[in-house]
Design goal:
This protein is α+β, with helices and mostly antiparallel strands. Strands 1, 2, 3, 4, 5, 6, 7 and 8 form an eight-stranded mixed β-sheet that branches. Strand 2 and strand 3 form a beta hairpin. The radius of gyration is 22 Å and the shape is globular. The N terminus is likely disordered.
């Protein structure tokens, strides 16, 4: 089949015929609804970067699709989707705006984390969810080396502190934050849920990419009283999270502990895939409309070197997508069968996903260089995808070299370091 330069052929021929085993009607519907919002997200992205938060129009439109409640239990008004559905939805958001997809990704983990608390806290958090626009709650410094402090008093805990990277804080009603405390058993780590009136937001998220995620610092300068039901010990967290398996309806509540952590990495990978796909769409649109600076071809798309870049980058993105979809299917398949992954298996799958993220980031860099200086305009989505992917790749949990070292030790049969790329090995 031949195409003219004006036709957009950014979707894979063979991969598009693949019928995914675990992509449900709900997942497909949400992704289709989100895909209609891609022009809106791209148009609003420059203003969102200036604001340091998604525009109200983007938040409202995305909220109506249900993407901020992908993993919320069906019983609480959500969708409780599996890993494959989650990957599809987040990748679709990422095609429009990486910052928006980052907040959707964060919500998939935070909404489930809140379910580890006592029922009274769950009821309080989700009581405001109906009609809420944007992420319901955020997490800040939950697993960081430096967290806030808490001391036990009658009726609960007095909490104060400073917590970084509260992605989505300008939209959320609640925040989960990490604390240190001391009881009869000595020092320990915990986490609490703060209501919006118990902390202030420092507007300090001044960064090169993911600018609209409002990943600001949260501060409680004086002690605030947190009721006892909004406190949990980190040492109890694994047991509490394991207790969610089968407690609610939906594929997302069949995941074991390793499957759940893999889903977190998959959510970031989905964002990277979406941004790479979005960049490829823009690349295919812009190259035929631009003239090369110093070569005798009518358009940049007619330049052989650009054609090579197009072929290479599409193959890189297709390969990354194949890995992500295969591992998402594996999480759902094994979970639905009642199983989970070993630590060694999960570590290898994390590495595959992080390598797929690297492929996406490299592909976008290649496209930007091939198109040239026209892409450095802040109005051009390609430069935003490049910057956002660079920032995403620096996140501690998905940094390439640390994860490669951890997997390399496994290849040689050396002792495991007991952690994956960014998390603390023991916070209890």
């Amino acid at each position: 089949m031949t195409t003219t330069a004006g036709e957009n052929r950014t979707t894979p021929d063979v991969s598009s015929q693949y019928v995914p085993e675990f992509l449900s009607e709900t997942g497909q519907r949400i992704a289709q609804e989100v895909s209609k919002l891609i022009p809106l997200m791209r148009e609003a992205a420059p203003e969102a970067e200036r604001l340091g938060a998604l525009t109200p129009e983007t938040v409202r439109a995305l909220s109506e699709t249900g993407v901020f409640h992908l993993t919320t239990p069906i019983e609480l008004g959500g969708h409780a989707v599996g890993a494959r559905d989650m990957l599809e939805a987040i990748a679709t958001v990422g095609r429009g705006d990486g910052s928006a997809a980052w907040l959707v990704s964060a919500a998939t983990g935070n909404n489930v984390m809140a379910l580890a608390y006592p029922q009274q806290a769950i009821d309080e958090v989700y009581d405001v969810s109906e009609g809420w626009e944007g992420p319901l709650l955020v997490g800040a410094s939950l697993f960081a080396t430096r967290v806030g402090s808490a001391r036990k008093v009658d009726g609960g805990w007095l909490v104060r502190g400073k917590w970084g990277f509260g992605s989505g804080c300008k939209h959320a009603a609640w925040a989960m934050v990490g604390v240190e405390f001391e009881d009869d058993n000595g020092p320990g780590r915990g986490q609490v849920i703060l209501s919006r009136d118990q902390y202030t937001i420092l507007d300090d998220w001044n960064v090169m990419g993911m600018c609209a995620t409002s990943s600001n610092t949260l501060v409680a300068e004086t002690e605030v009283l947190v009721p006892a039901h909004r406190f949990i010990k980190m040492s109890d967290l694994p047991m509490l999270m394991d207790g969610l398996r089968g407690k609610y309806q939906g594929v997302g509540f069949t995941w074991g502990s390793q499957g759940r952590v893999l889903a977190i990495t998959l959510s970031s990978a989905g964002n990277a895939l979406g941004m790479a796909r979005g960049a490829l769409e823009c690349f295919a649109e812009q190259a035929p409309a631009r003239k090369p600076f110093n070569l005798p071809y009518p358009t940049v798309a007619d330049t052989p070197s650009t054609q090579v870049t197009a072929g290479r980058t599409r193959a890189m993105i297709n390969a990354a997508q194949a890995v992500m979809e295969r591992h998402a299917d594996a999480v759902d398949r094994r979970s639905l069968a009642g199983g989970d992954f070993t630590e060694d298996e999960a570590s290898e799958l994390h590495m595959d996903l992080i390598y797929a993220i690297r492929l996406c980031a490299d592909a976008v860099d290649m496209m930007q260089i091939a198109l040239g200086s026209s892409t450095v305009s802040l109005k051009n989505p390609i430069q935003r995808f490049a910057r956002d992917l660079r920032v995403l790749s620096t996140h501690g949990a998905i940094r390439f070299d640390p994860m490669a070292e951890i997997n390399g030790r496994d290849v040689f049969g050396l002792e495991s370091v007991g952690m994956f790329a960014g998390g603390l090995p023991n916070v209890g």
